């Protein structure tokens, strides 16, 4: 196991200041910090509930606008690509403009985008307005994390991140329930209009209660890095999004964007290694062993959580013929597990470090997935077994997500936090997308292999948005909901096979977690 690290990496320029100049923080969670966490949580709830609610509305958009499902799926894909594009810029922008100003701007952009979506007269404008939402939403997640990290200090970070993580983790569960109810009761416009009072409240509260940004000299934007990384990540994810709808990975719609995206990211790595100072993302942070192993574990965890998390509602809707709202209600069991363990994980991490609690959480995820898979494999699905599996899985996720995120930034000096958060966010987004694409591809292959003449309704296939910290969206295959004939056994066999892969992935994730520190992480400057 690696020792407690020194903060490493290339100098970040004038913005860096030594730890001794950082403000002192009390050990207890005071009212001021809880207010800030609540405001960040309010904005996060708005963004992540909206993302999953839009997934529920896909069929409604097809009917309302008379558009093809391929066109409608861009209401999700466009958001996700905008989301992925702005994340790499968040670290530099936070250093340049300040986290408070940027947070206010992100909330405002998302809220205005929501209003525009609600009044969109056609599908093309709705897609454009969703891209605007994605710009705001893509900034909210890393900014909330930066703000909470700065205000909490290292001794309280685990507990406060645990509070802030709840909206990211519960969004995929509450979104289908809220979205289904709003669409059925008031109409699709209300999945966007509901954001207006939430967004305005978050904006006003943040303007009044967030501390002022601390003025610091800013560094120049790494323009070349930005032109390589942001399009690279977006193009790579676009290729992954195309996988479920194609017959082969060699399909040009899949292979070409993945190849271009990978080439741009590789070029970014080469550029960053040759750049003396101020890279967009400081890859020198990987010299810090905690950052390195936390990011590797986070990538594998995001792939597992997002991939499995998208399979579960897909199974409920396809094999058990539940509505999106009903599948959301079934997912509440996972939410209960999260609520039980997230606060305890934060307290445990602040006292014992991240390694031990993560090594409790990851096996729980594997066990929960295993129990759920057993329920899926039974001749007749047993709801109690399925719900117990989800409960255990939720407990494992609650023990894993917060400590991983907090461990990464705890080992960094204050001036490094923005860039470390950006690195973690990009890693999380790509890992989640890889997991979603992998599970979608495996499930599609199983459908084709065991399904015979079974064909999914083409109007039911939609894109998806990914990322573990929030799993910000739905499934690329989460609405294979209309199948010809009685194929319950074939479907159960297909899902069982893919869930077994998810269990194996959860087990593999334990390997890098072994190297996480099992003591409180404190950055040391020399």
TrEMBL record:
Name of the featured protein: DHA2 family efflux MFS transporter permease subunit
GO cellular component, as recorded: plasma membrane
InterPro entries assigned to the protein according to its UniProt record, in alphabetical order: EmrB-like, MFS, MFS_dom, MFS_trans_sf
Classification of source organism: Bacteria, Bacillati, Actinomycetota, Actinomycetes, Mycobacteriales
Subcellular location per the Swiss-Prot or TrEMBL entry: Cell membrane
Keywords: Cell membrane, Membrane, Transmembrane, Transmembrane helix, Transport
Membrane disposition: Multi-pass membrane protein
Residue intervals passing through the bilayer: 33-51, 71-90, 102-121, 160-184, 190-211, 223-242, 254-272, 293-316, 328-349, 356-377, 383-409, 498-516
Spans annotated as Disordered: 1-24
Major facilitator superfamily (MFS) profile domain residues: 36-521
The species this protein was found in: Mycobacteroides chelonae (Mycobacterium chelonae)
GO function term, MF aspect, one: transmembrane transporter activity
Cell membrane as UniProt keyword: yes
